[in-house]
Design brief:
- By secondary structure, the chain is α/β, with parallel strands linked by helices.
- It has four domains: about 160 residues, Molybdenum Cofactor Biosythetic Enzyme, Chain A (3-Layer(aba) Sandwich), CATH 3.40.980.10; about 60 residues, Molybdopterin biosynthesis moea protein, domain 2, CATH 3.90.105; about 100 residues, Molybdopterin biosynthesis moea protein, domain 3 (Molybdopterin biosynthesis moeA protein, domain 3, Beta Complex), CATH 2.170.190.11; about 60 residues, Beta-clip (Beta Barrel), CATH 2.40.340.
- The N terminus is likely disordered.
- It contains eight helices and 28 strands.
- InterPro entries: MoaB/Mog-like_dom_sf, MoaB/Mog_dom, MoeA-like, MoeA_C_domain_IV_sf, MoeA_linker/N, MoeA_linker/N_sf.
Length: about 425
């Protein structure tokens, strides 16, 4: 297959003597990355507190009706039948309740269980109570304290439709009903739904572990760079992005431009996925190909027809591990991440490929003559607009972007549909 091959004919120095690799297209590279992770990591049981960021390995089903009983949706009175009603007590959330008869009402708080026999809830602001015998009306207080036994009247029409302001049992779901499919990322909202439906634990895929190796003698981690040195932008940028894709980052370290150091770092990494930045091209200190060969790696993708980010790679390592090699330029590395790292991590996490939802190009989106282009964009009133500062070494455009537009070779005219890739 074009762009998919194995490293072979390795010399004693660890350098492949021959490599007949041709760049694969951007769609091919994305498919190859997902194929590399075609067997998701095993399922585990995780407590709700530990499940955030994992991916459901089985569908989430309700363990109870939700709500589990008829519930008051408002503060007021639970009433039975047509009014006026004789008030007979109060029920608060979390308290047991006794049945009420036709013509009776009980003061009720939001979330409290509706007493058996109640037909509706009269909102507090829509009712008033008067003592038995027709004494002057007295409006119930805003604190929820009524004036004791008396007659309750509905203001206005004098009636309450059956079911008014009642959340009936099972309104949201019934016990056993499937709520979310396998492959759903566990977000805070998913945790809340699972808890509401009675779950204490979730069956999720183990998160793929990732070690980030930042390569290069020219990088500094703090302060102002000088004398040919540059700040490491990818060390802070990539971990949150990889985490959002389902990964568990177990390490991040700086590796100098040394073949032996890089070989050992790749060979001995305990991570499911090693992500490197820099060293993917053919410069005098670009040792990644040689280090991969010496570590027993097998190239799956070596170079992708995409701008920026062309010299990216994907390899299989011994023990079922993988390595994603990203270019060293910041925006090029981001392009490599969305092309190879994220599809691989999604697949290993058990997540389906995101659906492509084309939007409209508001203006001409310039493309490369032969390669796919990933372009930082924002959404305007008439559609997608490109941003400036989109060079391989730039991050200013990405920092302003709402997405990356996938522009096919040759570009897109105004009004054309364009696929967008989300940016965290």
């Amino acid at each position: 297959m074009n762009g998919l091959t194995a490293l072979s004919d390795v010399t004693e120095a660890g350098r492949p003597s021959q490599r007949h690799l041709t760049d694969c297209s951007w769609p091919q590279a994305r498919r190859a990355a997902r194929l590399a992770g075609r067997r998701p990591l095993p399922a585990i049981e995780a407590a709700l507190a530990d499940a955030l960021g994992h991916t459901l390995a089985v569908p989430l089903a309700a363990l109870t009706d939700l709500p589990a009983f008829d519930t008051s949706a408002m503060d007021g009175w639970a009433v039975s039948g047509p009014g006026p009603w004789r008030t007979v007590g109060r029920v608060l959330a979390g308290q047991p309740c006794a049945p009420i008869a036709d013509g009776e009402a009980v003061e009720i708080a939001t979330g409290a269980q509706l007493p058996p026999g109640a037909t509706a809830v009269l909102r507090r602001e829509h009712g008033r109570t008067v003592p038995d015998g027709g004494a002057p009306a007295a409006v119930a207080t805003a604190t929820g304290q009524g004036l004791g036994p008396g007659l309750l009247h509905a203001l206005g029409t004098g009636s309450v439709p059956p079911g008014q302001d009642v959340r009936p049992r099972g309104q949201e779901c019934r016990r056993g009903e499937p709520l979310l499919p396998a492959g759903t990322p566990v977000t805070p909202a998913v945790l809340g739904l699972a808890a509401a439906c009675g779950h204490d634990r979730l069956t999720v895929h183990r998160r793929p572990t990732v070690e980030l190796l930042v390569l290069g003698d020219e990088l500094v981690d703090s302060g102002l760079p000088s004398a040919g040195l540059v700040r490491d932008a990818l060390g802070p940028l990539l971990p949150p992005w990889l985490h959002a894709a389902g990964a568990e980052l177990i390490g991040r370290r700086h590796v100098r431009d040394d073949f032996g150091l890089l070989r050992d770092a790749v060979r001995h990494s305990p991570a499911d996925v090693v992500v490197t930045t820099g060293g993917t091209a053919a410069g005098p200190v670009d040792f990644l190909h040689e280090a991969l060969a010496a570590a027993g790696g097998r190239l799956l993708v070596d170079g992708v027809a995409v701008r920026p980010g062309h010299p990216m790679l994907l390899a299989e390592l011994p023990g079922g591990r993988h390595l994603v090699g990203l270019p060293g330029n910041p925006l090029a590395a981001v392009a490599g991440a969305v092309t190879l790292a994220l599809p691989l991590l999604h697949a290993l996490s058990g997540r389906p490929a995101p659906e492509a939802r084309p939007e409209t190009a508001a203006v001409v989106l310039p493309g490369h003559p032969a390669d796919t282009r990933l372009l930082p964009v924002v959404r305007g009133e008439r559609g997608v607009l490109p941003l400036a500062f989109d060079g391989p070494a730039m991050l200013r455009g990405l920092a302003l972007a709402e997405a990356l537009a996938v522009v096919p070779p040759g570009g897109l005219p105004a009004g054309a549909g364009v696929e967008l890739l989300a940016t965290p």
